[in-house]
């Protein structure tokens, strides 16, 4: 179900021209929650939805890195005189 929701979110973001961060993919895709549950320290709670503090830190770092990298790509496009948006 999650990949279907991610596809819908991505499609809506693309249609409306807003940014989209694929948390599911960034975290590792299918099977990640089970791996995170079995990790030591545990990275996700028993509901397989809510991250534990260490897992939340990882998700925050993934988001921060994506924002930083996107901003750096934007600035490089501005310096190079290209307003085109790079697709990943």
Structural overview:
- It is a single chain.
- The chain is built from four helices and no strands.
- The protein is mainly α.
- It has one domain (2-79).
- The longest helix is centred in the last third of the chain and has 27 residues, at 53-79.
- The mean pLDDT is 92.
List keywords for this structure.
single chain; 88 residues; mainly alpha; 4 helices; 61% helix; 0% strand
Oligomer: single chain
Secondary structure: number of strands: 0
Compute the CA-based radius of gyration: 16 Å
Q: How far is the first residue's CA from the last residue's CA?
A: 23 Å
Helix fraction by DSSP (H/I, runs of at least 4): 55-70%
Low-confidence stretches: none
Query: How many strands, what sense, and barrel or not for the largest sheet?
Result: none
Number of helices, where a helix is a run of at least 4 consecutive DSSP H or I residues? 4
Q: What is the approximate shape?
A: flat
Structural domain tally: 1
Name the helix and strand elements from N-terminus to C-terminus, one letter apiece: HHHH
Class from helix and strand fractions: mainly alpha
Helix-strand layout with pairing:
Blueprint: H1 2-16, H2 23-27, H3 32-38, H4 53-79
Q: In summary, what is this structure?
A:
The protein has helices spanning 2-16, 23-27, 32-38, 53-79. With 88 residues, it is mainly alpha-helical.
